[in-house]
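hey so i finally got around to running the thing on that chain from the lab meeting. sorry it took forever, my laptop kept dying and i had to restart like 3 times. anyway pasting the input first so we r on the same page abt which one it is
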Amino acid sequence: MIFRKATKKDVQAIVAMIADDELGKQRENFQIPLPGEYYSAFENINRDENHELMVIENSTFEIIGTFQLTFIQYLTYQGGVRAQVEAVRIRKDQRGLGLGNIMFEWILRRVKEKKVHVLQLTTDKKRSEAIRFYENLGFKPTHEGMKIHFN
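ok and heres what got predicted. didnt touch it at all, straight out
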């Protein structure tokens, strides 16, 4: 498997994976051609050195996974850095093959390289399989997340 930073040509495949479940279908607008907002978001992510939008390719260079790492500098923890991992997806036809574990092995190496003191993520409470997967990796539900949605 090849891990690399996403390019503009990857955006359609990434959004297809993000939209390919019951929750994603409700909040994404996957169509061809892809709406311009996705490309604008990609450009914003791509130019910020604190964001790493990654894709995973198989041996035939098909994109089979994606995730985004964001490195957050703050004053607590003695000026520590935390990493947020978001939009974790494995293409539907590739699930159950252990690729998620390989993905997180890569993520853990990367955050250690960046001297991150905590890796955090959120997942919808409706995603019981994802919650079990993350708990099996060692993630603990330590905080209660709260959100306000606008629009």
